[in-house]
Queue: 2 jobs
Job 1
Amino acid sequence: MNLPLARRDNLIVKMLGNETLIYDRVSKRAHNLNPTTALIWRNCDGRTSVATIAADLARHMDAPVNEELVEYALGELQSAGLLADSHVYQEPHMTRRQLVTKLGIAMVAAPLILSIKAPKALAQASRIVIVNNYVTNNTTTTTPPSTTGTTTGTTTGTTGTTTGTTGTTTGTTTMDGGGTDAPV
Amino acid sequence: MDVFVEAMRGVWRPPDDNSDAPAQPNRLSVDRACEAGLAGLLWRRERCFDAANREALGDAYRIQLLEAGLHEANLEHLSIELHRQNIDAIVCKGWAVARLYSCPGMRPYGDIDLSIRPEQFPAAENLVQSLAGRAGPIDLHRGVADLADRPSDEVWRRSRVVPFANTSVRILGGEDQLRQLCLHFWRHLGCRPLWLVDVAVVVESLPGDFDWDYALRGAPSARDRVLCVIGLAQRLLGARNPFPDMARRADRLPHWLIPTVLWRWHRGMAAAPIWSLRSFRELADSIRFGVFNPLRAIQRSTWNPHRSLAAIQTSQVGIRAVEVAVRAWRALRKLGPQNARAYDIHEPRRF
């Protein structure tokens, strides 16, 4: 039985409202997990099966959850380098929109990992490297380029509460409270 | 109202305090806000009514929040190593000030500024070298920057040890912290708006037993500069000084100070080449506030800031001429800056 295990080492994890922000000190990439993906990631403790994770997610979403959704998220988490177990999860072979259509869930509930877009002036000064074009959205999934030093420029993506589009981000981010340290 | 002043008034206060909130949408560009260190502050206080800017500033805040976490992890690692080697260091600016803000990540972090007792400096230097950048960029100061007129024993005696993560960190006493922030702002000619916000945050958090005599003790020129920067924070940013007498005393500003600082903020961190200036007014301001910057003149002298601007700037003519000549000579000899190291060592300035 596959028991997914999340990486905990060399990660900076911060909560901002219902977003989970993660900075990977090894790959120097910053990720933004929507609530669905964050919940799945936190349940990856090496002792919980995919079925149990799906059941827990169903309780939180108050709706039935297919294990395929969890597998999809695990594929994204592994691509982002946030899993530590040796099981190889299939890279997402469908877009979020296709997943939503197939499973009949709300777009907002579909797993999503974003790279955090930084304004140019901040990207040039920041020590956090923003990876260009590493984003999972409705139409494209690209593999991250190798990063050397600091990259400038911006990535595209969407927030978890909006319908996905390529190009500029849409929707709003609500603030429910200050950023807090997330239990890892 | 100036666009910076409009954006920055009371911006450090908790989100439920909207007493200084601007009545109209923020006009500061995203790039300028990031350069000034204000992006996170503006987004947290919802002072960005334009949807496109709000999204960009929100992501800037997310980056700052993660950088804060990274900085804190580095500081924890460094503190543990310093304790292990019995090196008594004071953390200045950065985290020591950011902890006073109402929300984490509001204030962007840069380097870790460490002040080291002179006798322990070689050991600290060896430690930082052995870390090889694993604790992030570190600025080592022999003694305490901008407080060279203070006996170091007094500074260390007044410093405070505060708990931090799984260790503890030593920070400056309140009086020394305020003085250092003010003098640091002036020494850098007020170039970064965020540093004035730091002063405002500290001023509003002053305890009832704050020792103003000690805070202002020392060279009269330094005292005047400290008061001027506090007055700037009060006048420009609406900082509420809990000591009415000192607030009145600090409110007496030289007439040239606010225009000089605002000019610097609008110019930004990078100097525009002189041929890009588009009007005689811009050229005149560039000469008046840039080439013959009165803050620089006061910094280099022991003059009272309330002297006439003409006298201050006249004194600059000869000094600037010599500086230009030296730079031209160095350029001809192709003398360039040293390669950046993982850390920098700064000698304290002496008044």
Job 2
Amino acid sequence: MEELWVYLLNGGEAMENDLQGWLSLSRDDRRAERALAWKETGRKVVGLLCSYIPEEIVHAAGMLPWRIVGAHRPGTPRADVYRPPHTCLYCNHVLESLLTGEYDFLDAVVATSWDQDLVRLWDVWKYLGKTPAMHIIHLPLSNSATHKKQFAKEVKKFFTFIENLAGRKITEEALFDSIKLFNRFRGLLHRVYELRKHENPPLSGSEVLALTMASLLMPKDEFVTGLEGLLPYLEKRVNSLPVHTPRLLVSSDRLDDPQYLKVVEETGCLVAMDDLDAGSRYFWRSTETEGLNSLEAMLEALAYRYHDQPAGPALMTWVEQVEQVAAWVKAFNIQGVLELPLMYSRSRQMRAPYFRDKLSALGIPVAGFERDYHLANVGQLKTRIGAFVEMLQ
Amino acid sequence: MTWLEREIERNKKRLAKIEANPDQTMLRANKLLYEMELDLRKAQLEAWRTHNQPMANSEYATALISAMGFVGLDLMGSADRTRLANEYFDIIRAKGFPDTACDRTIVCLAMCINEDYPPPDIVLAHNTACHMELTSFKAIGEYFNKPVFTLNGGLGASEDSLRFVTDQIEEFIQFAEAKVPGVRYDEERMIEILEIESQAQQYMREINQLRSHVPCLLSALDAFRLPRFPSYYPSPRQALNYFEAWRDEMMARAEKGIGVLEEEKLRLLWVVTGPFYFNPFIVLAKRGVAVPALQFGWMTRVFGIQYYNFLDEEEYGRKLTPLEEQARLLNSNSWAVLGETWVNDTLEACRNLKVDGMVYYVQIGCTASAGLGRIVAEEAEKQLGIPTLLMEGRQLDAQFKSQAECEQELEAFVDLCLSRKGLL
């Protein structure tokens, strides 16, 4: 009955169908759909294990950048052979998917040294030899000029890797077009996020995450065209959540299952903003396009854009990370910050006391509850999050 | 009494015991080692109490830290020496830090919080051994509101990553000189230290050559001890004497044919780390198993098995500057780089020491090595035909696995190795 009401209010069956089609794209059974369709046209797919990999370069070479997500099912028996269960659960679930053949269609896989767990996943992947081409980008972990300069060198190496994979040179024109497209894409997601500032936003938090996840799994050109068509509809849409307060910001890494945010919202709140590598952090900054008159300049601009994105806790910019979250709290009228560390994600766990203390000192209520990678312990999570939500009310 | 004070007392007792009733299977040179350890703890305590010298964490950048006039704080090494750390794990949990992180990286933080050990005046947060150490250094710096400088190694040794690390060292010097009164980088002192380190390394190379001697000349406990370069200690020259004495003692044992076991049936390489809350080598010794070495992140470089070190000109085809020398070490730990290096180095150590098998300690929370154990085991079987025990455990948390459970695993593995050698 409630769904019907939403449908009538929004008044657009086709638009709603399109939207729902996208929002279900990150489900286990649909995740590879667009990548496989891409492959059928004879083009290559590059799997990306991190948000610090400049997708524009892959796009400019005529290939599909595709974010690697692990299977959201309990147990990782095949992966446990290579990785002890007390290591990063995202990596364990991704390895499980690799070993079950879910990534057999990939032409290449690229990682960064975001943290050492990810490097070790890349090591095992390379050892198993299940993907034709592999590359890893060294990611320096502070915002010093030396670290940025080093990352720029790494982006150049990545560019060469992609050119070799494509078997052709990437032209200045193609790269510049890709940079412009990705900036346009980011601008559109900013417009979606602006809608989240509304008292009654058109999309729930879980729907927004499903939307950003779709953008990571489908061709950007298609996403941009589609979202441009959907935005006028979204501006009028009404979400189906029964309550819209309190407004929470959820902070985590590798949280790529929108069902988790649905569980949060089922406790009686709205996730009105996020601090996620699959959400805001993924698209927040654009690439500077002024003076990009050579490939060299474009690669440098990309390097700075990617290195300067709002950081997760694996980077040592803890002060800036708190400042960014505090700024989002203010801009999105947030009442509380909910941190959902992925179990065994040491970087976030080690930063957790600092993060919570600093936000608390700013008068921002904050709570943190560890979670699995796949949706698990729902009852326990709901009880704990519910208590936090009740306190905010 | 703080941990530092207790450690001073412990070292005094060790020295007295060596004087009165030395264990014949252990190195006599250990007396020099404990004297150095005693001096180190006294210097740390004095700096903490009197503020007569600034303090910085010293892990692996000891030559630089020493040449800058700091008293070095071996945060990780000190945590190792707590042996059993239940009270520190309670502190970790109470403060909201993860108790499943690698023991040494988290216990050192609890030691500082508990005022058992001084927090550094400045923190060099680096990942030159592993990512966990980086986050631990960072957490210590932020917890105590101290200046933190982030230094990253590369993903493999190269001219480019050497330059990258050297640039950061130069920046750290500027940062530290600006932030900590009285700190100044002394290049002459650095050169002097590097010459001492180079001599120490020559001894370690010779020690390593003696490790492959049959019968094994070292007790497993002596073999297991992480060697620390002379610059860890207040008097680096004195430390040089220790390495010389260690080498000489092994040479003398070799000449006389003195092994540490009555009958050596097997030799195993111990890999990564081990439980510090009991001695796992007793059960091995009883079965005639020698453990000539511990393979850790810098083992093949420090002992000259695979790489060069201080003052060598071959690796980079030129003479390195003093700061590049420090960068070379920081940029070459096989735990911190891509896994292939750690796998190959471990196999090389096996070849070099002619072992019959490996005990690979899968340390809970070790981001560097835990995810590579299976590959090491598969490659050891494939390339060398030797078995590996992947033994999951913790360094300091006895609640994870009991001594009896560990010993049971070791016994079963020894049976397997003896059987493969036709000795069972």
